[in-house]
Amino acid sequence: MKVAVFALVLICLGSAWSCVGSQPLDSSSLNDIQKFSRRYAESTIASDISKIVDSMVQKNFVNFLLNQREKKSEPATDDPDRRIFNDLLKKEFVMWIQRKGEAFK
């Protein structure tokens, strides 16, 4: 099956090349070829640029997610109210342990 498809493609390409070769190349057909090659080059460049921009956007998104994850995992020790509250909790806990220790003596 693959051989048949390959042979069919070769026959089609051969007939297309024979049609192109049999016609004389005038200035209009040369212009058409140049326009086609220029459009092909422009689309290739645009495709490459699009791939590069997509990869940059993906990297930026991953970095954004990693930064958000780091921000969530960092404790908020800069808040003075929270620091005071934590200090009070520590003092209360130490006093509770001391009272329990005195009760067992």
From TrEMBL:
* InterPro entries for the chain: GIP
- Keyword tRNA processing included in the entry's annotation: no
Q: According to the UniProt entry, where is the signal peptide?
A: 1-22
The record's keywords, sorted A to Z, are: Hormone, Signal
Q: What is this protein called?
A: Gastric inhibitory polypeptide
Q: What is the organism field in this record? A: Labeo rohita (Indian major carp)
